[in-house]
UniProtKB/TrEMBL annotation:
Cell location: Membrane
An annotated Gene Ontology molecular function: glycosyltransferase activity
Topology with respect to the bilayer: Single-pass type II membrane protein
Pathway given in the UniProt record: Glycan metabolism
Name of the protein this chain belongs to: O-fucosyltransferase family protein
Family matches, as Pfam families: O-FucT (PF10250)
GO cellular component: endosome; membrane; trans-Golgi network
Annotated region (Disordered), positions in chain: 409-441, 614-684
Transmembrane segments: 17-36
Length: 684
């Protein structure tokens, strides 16, 4: 018996040792996997990888590799060769004095508005400080002050931009300080500083003859900017250096704070990880823009009511002129309304972009929500935005440590009359008495866009702290989208006007791309022409014929160059940053003596680039191919919404001229299209 018991004990002890060894090996295995996930051995040594982030997007492609040598690729993604001699050059070209080391004049600026208005206003403020030989105090952005519920880590300007980089980049242009001197801070608290509410059309004459005398007398002035700028877009020829100063501010000094830049860089890395180019698309569908241009009838139900309510508000304040009710279809045919995502999807497919093209949707607000994007998602498989390329903790990191706002919907105090009734009920009559009716249930409204007040009130409720904080977050979202759109291989705007009829976010992106890399494709669509094309196939929207496809391709090719002249007239007079050429550019002559006469008249630059910018442009054989030669016949009558099944199968089926020429959309896309038809009632 004792021998049996001893044997069992030995077996148990061995099992314990085996279990212990197994645990140790498991721990070592986990540790090894963590090391492999973070480090990798290369020929140059050990390389450390960034942490792997899990997000929702999983790209789907028809072919694993995308050839970049064929003509179709060059037409879709290749550079605009006729603009390759245009180079960015915003440095001073004439005598340019360095600012005085000490200045007793200060300009303090308070800015209201959206992302594009803030950016334009800061550039104008710098120019005015230079014009008046004054020191600029870091501008205060009203949307990002502490009262808006943002993190206490940031102070207004620093919530969006890098203060130190801003000051360092402008050291040779103006003096910039973070705060007013102590002697002037008290005067500002007591509101003793003279203040000017300026418009975006103010001329340099206004500042030299009205603001400067007050500045000399009081040593400080405050400018309140709520009009998307505080200086006219076009300046006299003798002030051309101030236009280049605008470019230096917008494209070099105004860099976003580090956390925002890092997240935008991660998104760009994730977009390019599959090894394919991508399109950035900005719908431009904001409530203010739709209300200003009278596009309410393009939407349904509560969205129409919201747009009409906003238009009525604009009419009362003189922001827009005309009638409350506008024929939206007429506005659309005139090119005054945004192109719908479905229309953008159709023309991109007609141009030749395949169903598996990566498309990034930008914009802090897409009015109408996901319902308006359903057809676009059905046309293209790999449609993403910042939410599908980031995790929630990555977005929360750029917001900083924010206080928890428990009371989302502040309750209004009861009126004095109700209080008196309640007290009278307590002291009057014998008991028992019937109880008073229960108080009305407090109304609450969804903070993320479901505006229930439209059906119950004519007055829009005041924004809660949560909504104000969300508006501040939108600035960060648009900052991320701005960086992605500027670096995109192709940029497509759905609309280029804001809620005041001026250039919007998309216009600033196109201006930045024209300055930074003029050869990058940016389609400047003629909305009137596109609306006309869409009317031609309204009865057979998804079965466009070959002639229609050719006409759309011709228009998109023309929009890359020919539309530059029209854009310079329409946008530059309203916002210089939307078209900073030719003031902020120079020409690099071609080595073989080719002339620059092919450049559009709007961007012809007389000045050649300085020698330090590098060698001349070298023309390679085949670079100057005619765009018409690149226009391959790769789509049949039904090619828009059918996946191509490969070159051999297309040839076997007669070149893809009918439904047999390609593979039909996936069941997911078909389901989305059927759902959309049900919501729209089967009609267009």
């Amino acid at each position: 018996m004792k021998g049996d018991a001893g044997g069992k004990m030995i077996i148990k002890s061995k099992l314990k040792w085996v279990g212990l060894v197994g645990l140790v090996l498991s721990a070592l295995s986990l540790f090894t996997h963590f090391l492999l996930a973070r480090y990798s051995y290369t020929e140059e040594g050990i390389t450390e990888y960034q942490a792997i982030t899990i997000f929702s997007w999983r790209p789907i492609f028809e072919n694993a590799d995308l050839s970049s040598n064929n003509k179709l690729y060059k037409r879709l993604w290749g550079p605009v060769r006729r603009l390759e001699s245009l180079q960015p050059h915003a440095k001073p070209r004439a005598h340019y004095s360095v600012p005085v080391s000490e200045s007793d004049r200060y300009i303090f600026v308070r800015i209201r508005g959206g992302f594009h208005e803030i950016r334009s206003s800061i550039c104008d403020a710098v120019v005015i400080a230079r014009l008046l030989n004054a020191t600029l105090v870091i501008p205060e952005i009203q949307s990002t002050t502490s009262s808006k519920g943002i993190s206490a880590q940031f102070k207004s300007f620093a919530y969006l931009y890098n203060e130190d980089q801003f000051m360092a980049a402008l050291a040779n242009d103006i003096l910039v300080v973070k705060t007013l001197p102590k002697t002037l801070k008290g005067a500002r608290r007591k509101k003793e500083i003279p203040s000017f509410k300026v418009l975006n059309s103010q001329s340099p004459y206004y500042y030299l003859h009205h603001v400067l005398p007050v500045l000399i007398r009081h040593s400080v002035v405050e400018l309140v900017v709520s009009d998307g700028g505080c200086l006219q877009a076009t300046l006299p020829p003798d002030l051309e250096e101030y236009q280049r100063l605008r470019c230096r501010v917008a494209f070099h000094a105004l860099t976003f704070r580090q956390e925002v830049q890092e997240l935008a860089t991660k998104i760009l890395h994730r977009l390019r990880a599959p090894g394919r180019p991508f399109i950035a698309y900005d719908p431009g569908m904001t409530r203010d823009a739709l209300a200003y241009h009278g596009c309410a009838e393009l939407f349904q139900d509560v969205h129409t009511e919201l747009i009409q309510h906003r238009r009525l508000w604009m009419l009362k304040r003189g922001i827009v002129k005309g009638n409350l009710t506008v024929d939206s279809n007429t506005q659309r045919l005139n090119g005054s309304c945004p192109l719908m995502p479905e229309e953008i999807g159709i023309i991109l497919r007609a141009y030749g972009y395949s169903w598996d093209t990566i498309i990034y949707i930008s914009g802090g607000e897409v009015f109408g929500g996901q319902k308006k994007l359903i057809p676009f998602h059905a046309i293209f498989e790999n449609v993403v935005d910042r939410t599908s390329l980031t995790t929630s903790w990555e977005l929360n990191r750029i917001y900083g440590r924010e206080a928890n706002l428990v009371d989302k919907y502040p309750k209004t105090p009861p009126s004095a009359e109700k209080e008196m009734r309640h007290e009278a009920w307590k002291t009057s009559g014998q008991r028992p008495r019937p109880l008073p009716p229960p108080p009305a249930r407090p109304k609450s409204y969804h903070i993320e866009g479901w505006w229930g007040w439209v059906a119950e009130s004519d007055n829009e409720p005041e924004s809660t702290v949560i909504e104000l904080r969300t508006n501040a977050h939108k600035l960060l979202w648009e900052a991320i989208d701005y960086m992605v759109c500027v670096e995109a291989d192709v940029f497509v705007p759905g609309f280029d006007r804001d809620g005041k009829g001026r250039p919007n976010f998309a216009s600033l992106v196109m201006g930045h791309r024209l300055y930074q890399s003029a050869t990058a494709k940016s389609f400047r669509l003629d909305r009137k022409e596109i609306a006309k094309r869409m009317e031609e196939i309204s009865d057979h929207l998804y079965e466009a014929n070959h002639t229609w496809i050719k006409s759309v391709r011709s228009h998109l090719r023309e929009s890359l160059l020919d539309r530059l002249t029209e854009e310079s007239k329409a946008s530059k007079s309203l916002s210089f940053l939307s078209f900073p050429v030719p003031e902020c550019s120079c020409l690099r002559s071609e080595s073989k003596g080719a002339s620059t006469s092919q450049l559009p008249a709007a961007i012809k630059v007389a000045r050649s680039c300085p020698a330090w910018m590098g060698k001349d442009v070298v023309s390679r054989p085949g670079d100057k191919e005619n765009e018409d030669d690149l226009d391959e016949d790769d789509s049949g009558p039904f090619g828009l919404f059918f996946r191509q099944s490969g070159g051999s199968s297309n040839r076997n089926n007669g070149g893809g001229g009918g439904r047999g020429g390609g593979e039909m959309m996936s069941s997911k896309e078909e389901t989305q299209m059927e759902d959309q038809e049900e919501m729209d009632g089967g009609d267009r």
